[in-house]
Amino acid sequence: MNENTYDVIVIGGGPAGLAAAVSARDAGAGVLLIEREARLGGILKQCIHDGFGLLRFGEKLSGPEYAEREIDELRKRNIPAKTLTFVTKIEKERGRFRVHAVSRDGVAVYETAALVLATGCRERTAKQVFIHGTRPSGIFTAGTAQHFTNLLGELPAKKCVILGSGDIGLIMARRLTLEGAQVLGVYEAKPTPSGLTRNLHQCLYDYDIPLYLSHTVTRVFGADRLEGVEIAEVDENMRPVEGTGRRVDCDALILSVGLIPENELAEGLGVEIDPKTKGPVCDGQCMTSVDGVFSCGNALHVNDLADYVSENAAAAGKAAAEYRRIGRKPARLNASEEFLYLVPQRLDLNRSNAGTTVYFRSRCDYNNARLVLSVDGKEVFSKRYAFLRPPEMERLELNFDALGLTERSDVRFTLELQGGKERAQ
Amino acid sequence: MKETVCIVCPRGCKLRIDESGGDLAVTGNACRRGRDFAVSELKDPRRTICTTVRTAFPEVPVLPVRLSAEIPKARIFDVMREINAVTVESRVGRGDIIIKDVLSLGADVIASSNLLKEIQ
Description:
The complex is a heterodimer of chains A (about 425) and B (about 120).
Chain A: E1 5-11, H1 15-26, E2 31-34, E3 50-52, E4 61-62, H2 63-76, E5 81-82, E6 86-93, E7 96-103, E8 106-117, E9 121-123, E10 132-133, E11 139-141, H3 142-152, E12 159-163, H4 167-178, E13 182-188, H5 197-204, E14 211-213, E15 215-221, E16 228-233, E17 246-249, E18 252-255, E19 259-261, H6 264-268, E20 293-295, H7 306-321, E21 330-335, E22 339-343, E23 346-348, E24 356-362, E25 366-375, E26 378-388, E27 394-398, E28 411-417
Helix pairs in contact in A: 1-2, 1-7, 3-4, 4-5
Chain B: E1 2-5, E2 14-20, E3 23-27, H1 32-43, E4 46-47, E5 50-55, E6 62-67, E7 71-72, H2 76-84, E8 87-88, E9 97-99, E10 109-111, H3 115-118
Parallel strand pairs in B: 5-8
Antiparallel strand pairs in B: 1-2, 2-3, 4-7, 5-6, 6-10, 9-10
């Protein structure tokens, strides 16, 4: 074996990549991890708030603490990690992958039998939400504001408006308030909040920061620096209601309007993408539609918790280490329209699916829902939920091997609604 | 009767607290910690703080810190003033104490990252 040849190459050094690399190594694989930034840890480096690790470590940790524990595990195993290394191209040749990367040392090519894509997700930007007006400075994504505040020690706003009620926006509302900035309000175009309920309480209500549902920013004002925004109410189709616009003076607009799985490398490999998750279609082993290419963490679907990312990535890393080209026997997992999405989207019946973790989100807020798994119209499993909310991901562990599935089985998840649809208060 | 949401873990249980004759009845919690949280919310609401502290090292301008224990919610901004008055001048590591027993509230301000040891 040549020194640039591995069993598993993991791309991305955030919580997903770290857990995937460690579990692939523990399953006996020769592993290389590639990270484009100078330091491992991914976005957790700037997530200085706590609440991480309750599931994985049984402790409440901050993001840096969680990431550093995972990095310690990588180092204990002497797993090579190339930082400041950017993957430019991946080629598939005779069932193996050639990963082209550029770093300060120049260009290098690494070869591997299996690939784990742990490239995380990216924030939706101002351009993607079509805000009109001038182009002054002072418009940031919540993650950029977090980078300035928590890594560079620079406060990006004195008086700001937050658009979108995603978790990072809520966390930043609290963070900026703690540092003495004034957060005038969080405006959400949807009639329900996007973030976790506990974050609404501990980040907004604790600090008397108002939350305005069914409101959006329609214009920005200012030449060099943002001077104000126009806020308008929106109707049920999320269109601004005429005559409701009013100007709010502020020096920053912070956007927390959603996260999108990052799959440029996956798409380059011809991996099939699920339009619902915007991540790859995968099976119970986290293998994508391309043999030998695995996807995990927020690149696969956007998770609420780093703990779930690590769990899912560890499964992907192990599966990548155990990957052999034996051909696949796919069975689709269908989900009714009450689901926003369900992962994995299929099973490979040539491999064991005895302890498959299924992740899903509901499309709307539901009270008293019953999840039913049926095979060819026959109910084989059910579970009751007192409430389901799209911002709160659910997970289930299922033994599909006990169901005697074939490629022609109609495997279907449905949600029976007893309490009907209910909007959040 | 008071309604709140438990913030102890990501589950976010909706809590209902009924007070009658000095006794507190908590419902909606999935575990013991939810009850403890509800009682504390009524009698002595407490929170932790996660923030940063300035350093003397230009390559690491701020270091993440947090409190070793919760403090009364009403004292959050007092503690923030103490933390923002400090500059870290030695290469402390994860878990090291930055301010001991801040404002005599029974909590230490501790470093929550090894950043200063990693980047030299």
